[in-house]
Design brief:
The protein has two domains: 84 residues, Arc Repressor Mutant, subunit A, CATH 1.10.10; 119 residues, no CATH class. It is built from nine helices and six strands; from the N terminus they run ααααβββββαβαααα. By secondary structure, the chain is of the alpha+beta class. A hairpin with a 5-residue loop joins strand 1 and strand 2. Helix 2 packs across helix 4 and helix 5 runs parallel beside helix 7. Helix content is 38%, strand content 11%. It is globular, with a radius of gyration of 19 Å. The strands form three sheets. A two-stranded antiparallel sheet has the order 1-2. It comes from Paenibacillus faecis.
Length: 230
């Protein structure tokens, strides 16, 4: 109504008596390319544990939307890089089921390692050809002597039998800032290693194991807020 005042009433999320809640980046919820249906669907999926499996029939049971509506929302999220759908095949190559990887930000997608841009990026022999100057510099985490990084890379190598994917300079800075934030919150290396080990023991085979995704779950694994959203 014109001239009326609007008040927002929020649940108290601080203190020991705080109810369960989910911390989500503002970016996907304010992504104007997505319908409100797709944003709500993504928020619901991000409220579930990292190893939670999603099925259309199960999602329908928790909403007033029908299957076609859910599929349309999923298609929006897939087209913009928020989810990745892939087949699970048996030894004969027959598709047995379909699984989803959920990304709070398209920048976490293993196919790119950086945010989706209008001008597509071509990667040939590790050389980046792109119109986006932000993406011209990549770094290997192998050069870092930080014990937290080295511990993560150890378990990554054991699980994936390869080196961790390179990251952009912006991603590298965010990773190091988040680790320093955890250290300043008195998260010891032993607790870090326990959580890293648990992470890789439960990691689906198709998940690329990017450390950025692991650090985005800091608030759940270490009860410490994210230092700075990337």
């Amino acid at each position: 109504m014109e001239g009326s005042e609007v008040a927002t009433h929020r649940v108290n999320k601080s203190g020991k008596a705080a109810p369960p809640f989910t911390r989500i980046l503002n970016d996907p919820l304010q992504d104007e390319r997505l319908s409100f249906k797709a944003r709500g669907l993504l928020a619901y999926m991000l409220s579930k544990p990292d190893n939670f499996r999603f099925y259309i029939d199960e999602l329908v049971r928790h909403t007033t939307e029908g299957k076609d509506s859910i599929r349309a929302g999923m298609k929006e999220l897939e087209q913009l890089g928020y989810i990745h759908r892939y087949p699970v095949k048996n030894e004969r190559g027959k598709i047995m089921s379909w699984e989803l990887d959920i990304y709070e930000s398209p920048s976490l997608r293993p196919e790119s390692g950086f945010p989706v841009v209008e001008n597509p990026t071509l990667i040939t022999n590790d050389n980046i050809i792109t119109n986006d100057k932000r993406l011209n510099k990549y770094l290997s985490l192998e050069i870092e002597d930080n014990p937290y990084i080295k511990t993560y890379l150890k378990y990554f190598s054991q699980k994936k039998n390869k080196q961790h994917m390179r990251v952009t300079t912006d991603q590298y800075g965010w990773i190091m800032n988040q680790i320093e934030h955890l250290k300043s919150s008195d998260i010891p290396i032993k607790q870090w290693e326990d959580q890293v080990r648990d992470h890789f023991e439960k990691l689906p085979a198709k998940n690329n194991g990017n450390i950025i995704a692991f650090l985005h779950a800091s608030h759940r694994r270490f009860d410490v807020g994210i230092h700075d959203q990337f």
